[in-house]
Amino acid sequence: MKKTSLILVMSIILFGCNSDDIKGTIDNVNNVIDNAGNAIDSLNDITSDHNDDIAELDTHSLTNTQKQNYAQISTDVNTLVLSVAGMCVDKQDAINPDFTTLSCNIADHLTDLAITEFSNIVLLNGKLDITRQNENLFIINTNEDVTFKAPIISSNTISYQLQGDNKISVQVSNENDPSLTTSFSGFYTDGSQSDNSSWTIESINNQYFSFTDDDNTQLIALTNGQAQLISKDNQTYGWSTNTTGKVILK
Fold it and tell me: Which of 11, 82, 126, 133 is disulfide-compatible with 25, CB 3.0–4.6 A?
């Protein structure tokens, strides 16, 4: 039944057959419907504007120095997360060497963090979910985004997400030679920019990084691997790290 016909029937039932009453009622109901429609349109506009606020980093506009900085920061955040995860695993292993899952709060280890040589990064908080796939393979995810500051690329807090397809995989060689190799894919969001710029970083297949640490200097790094950054319109650029963890753009 059409809108006007339905209104007419309702009006007749409510007010009898007085034509002026019917016409007035129809006009009032039409006004209510029109106002509701305008409100819905306004809500849709607000939602659309909010969605537009989430954009991807435009790497075409970056200089090589800026690309170097983004790559170094993104790689070294993985280094720091791995360091925290390692402390949590070691602690849990001493309690229960047969554990399969573990929750790790970064805030509990901030005073124990080692240093990355080429980045000025401050980890703030976040929670890691660590799953032991087998004796020597661990998967790191996040149930709560890791947040950090990296002044060289942002004036605000950056969020790092390891959910869905994003994760860090860590392979321990063996007990006698406990070296670590890792691959990763992570999603970053920079809240300081007006468009909340985001980007993805991922290691390149079969080009795993080695996690290295130096007890004398407290320096940690991901060395001898290759990765790429994916940004707006699937723009990409890649790099490798040398034996000290320094990024070398391709």
Answer: 11
| Rounded Cα–Cα distance for residues 231 and 228 (Å) | 10
Q: How far apart are CA 166 and CA 186, in angstroms?
A: 5
Give strand ranges (E) for the chain: 101-105, 115-116, 122-132, 137-149, 157-161, 167-172, 180-190, 198-203, 209-213, 219-223, 226-230, 236-241, 247-249
| Cβ atoms within 10 Å of 110's Cβ, excluding its own | 13
pLDDT by residue, tens only, the chain of 250 residues: 444 444 444 444 444 545 555 455 445 545 544 554 454 344 344 333 333 444 689 999 999 999 999 999 999 999 999 999 999 999 999 999 999 999 999 999 999 889 999 999 999 999 999 999 998 999 999 989 999 999 999 989 999 999 999 999 999 987 666 689 999 999 999 976 656 689 999 999 878 999 999 888 889 999 999 999 999 999 999 999 999 999 999 9
User: And the tokens for 196?
Assistant: 């909340």
- Residue 150 DSSP class: -
Ramachandran bin of 59, using left for φ above 0, alpha for ψ from -120 to 50, beta for the remaining angles: alpha
